[in-house]
Amino acid sequence: MLVTVKGLVIGRREVGDNNCFLDIFTDKLGMVEVMAHGVKKLGGKNSAASSMFSLAVFCLNKKNSGGYTLNSTEPVYNFYGISKSIESFSLAIYFADIIKYCATSEEEHGELLRFVCMAFYQLEKQKLDLEFIRSVFEFRFITHIGFMPDLRACQNCACYSDEVMYFLPNEGMFFCDDCYNTVAYARGKEVFEIDPTVLHILRYVAYSENEKLFKFKVTPRYEKLFSEISEYYLHAQLGRTFDTLKYYKSLKLDF
Ligand SMILES: [Zn+2]
Fold first, then answer.
1. Is the Cβ–Cβ distance between 113 and 6 less than 8 Å?
2. Measured in angstroms, how far is the CA atom of residue 105 from the centroid of ligand 1?
3. The whole model's pTM is what?
4. Residue ranges of domains in the chain
5. How far is Cα 241 from Cα 222, in angstroms, rounded to an integer?
6. What is the pLDDT along the chain (255 residues), one digit of tens a residue?
7. Å from CA of 194 to ligand 1 middle
8. Ligand 1 centroid to 160 CA: how many Å?
9. How far is the CA of 132 from the centre of ligand 1 (A)?
10. Is 132-255 a CATH 1.20.1440 domain?
């Protein structure tokens, strides 16, 4: 059976002299692993669309076993510019790790694919601080792949905002100052003390439409606070960290 999807190549493993397994994050099927024959040949008909960070329309052949082989391709764009910077490249590989770990297969992910492409576009253009791109990616992706925190109001009294609030990353909720100090459930948990600006940033990234996500500005202080929360929240929800993040951070220390 043939199926046509739009997708981004985020992983590639060589098989023999001329074939590859491709990890493609797609709009209609989520994550798929695709066997691509003959793509290592220079100038082969599917070679361009099968390279890393290539966005393309893929016509896939679904075998009876459930696996996919590549039939034909129509290249849309290639984020090859990311490879010009080792920092951007290592961050893209970290993003790819998160996607591969979280995204299920046989599930619609069109909106998330659009967001991932926007993040990769920012990594390529490098007009924004890489730490800002990383934080927005982490928090947006994790909240939209099934780990949405309740940022609407204080978990106990339902107030919208307070001068001082407490965000519980493991539970994915927050309490106002009064409730945090009186509700027994809130005590003894991992917690970030936050103010209305931090809460606004979290709500903005979790709830805004894709187009607005890389268009807001934060001061360096809030960028750092947001970065700490986004990283902690993602790893708390997934129960793991990623070596590719450690590598990216080691590069930053070298500069
Ligand atoms: Zn409250």
1. yes
2. 39
3. 0.95
4. 132-255
5. 23
6. 999 999 999 999 999 888 999 999 999 999 999 999 988 877 788 989 999 999 999 999 999 888 999 999 999 999 999 999 999 999 999 999 999 999 988 899 999 999 999 999 999 999 999 999 999 999 999 999 999 999 999 999 999 999 999 999 999 999 999 999 998 888 888 999 999 999 999 999 999 999 999 998 999 999 999 999 999 999 999 999 999 999 999 997 665
7. 14
8. 9
9. 30
10. yes
